[in-house]
Amino acid sequence: MKIILTHEVSGLGTAGDVVDVKDGYARNYLVPRGFAIRWTKGGEKDVEQIRRGRKIREIATIEQANEVKGRLEGVSVKLAVRAGDAGRLFGSVTPADVASAIKAAGGPDVDKRRVELGSPIKTLGAHQVSVRLHAEVVAKLGVEVVAA
């Protein structure tokens, strides 16, 4: 089945790409979650609009990515969450939480899909988080999770 990606999907492509995938993968995963739309002849207009939007949002060059990396690594991020007595969280910290904490700490605006958690953050303390800014540039960021 031919689909048009509306978001970046790891191992498949970026927004605006037209790819061919198995029917079940498209029907059961990509389309319901909003990562893709079905390809039609009229959908070619959508492809151009998606690509224009991606160009505006994405970091185009490695120099820009390194500049944002420097600003990111200089930011001290504290995330206040609810936790129990033993230091275990009620739930976990999501990439969206980290992205909003970076912005609140005065850092650059980061897309939540670019934030990569090694494993789910479910305890208080210091944790390492990666932010993939470009295909070749990854920023390492320390996140301090404290009780609210």
From TrEMBL:
Listed InterPro entries: Ribosomal_bL9 (IPR000244), Ribosomal_bL9/RNase_H1_N (IPR009027), Ribosomal_bL9_bac/chp (IPR020594), Ribosomal_bL9_C (IPR020069), Ribosomal_bL9_C_sf (IPR036791), Ribosomal_bL9_N (IPR020070), Ribosomal_bL9_N_sf (IPR036935)
Record domain Ribosomal protein L9: where: 13-40
Coiled-coil portions: none
Keywords: Ribonucleoprotein, Ribosomal protein, RNA-binding, rRNA-binding
GO cellular component, one term: ribosome
Pfam families (alphabetical): Ribosomal_L9_C, Ribosomal_L9_N
Organism domain of life: Bacteria
Family: Belongs to the bacterial ribosomal protein bL9 family.
Function: Binds to the 23S rRNA.
UniProt-recorded name of the protein: Large ribosomal subunit protein bL9
Species in which this protein is naturally found: Streptomyces endophytica
UniProt gene name: rplI
